[in-house]
Design a protein that fits this description.
Layout lengths: L4 E3 L7 H6 L8 E3 L7 H6 L8 E3 L7 H7 L1
Length: 70
Amino acid sequence: VALVELDVSDTEVDADGLAALAGRTALESIDLNRNPIDAAAIDALAYFPSLRHVELDGTAATAADVRRLL
């Protein structure tokens, strides 16, 4: 069974944590709210080619970081 949706809000997941999930290529949606998400973590989202929905409320992600996801 493929992991398609993941909620890791409020878990302190960061770029290293996202990298550890890299094999989850079917992941379409991830909730990263209230985590230490920075530019490196945004870069790590490239590991998920099927990703279509990302929640980043309460993170340090900037508008420029978000534009890189588009």
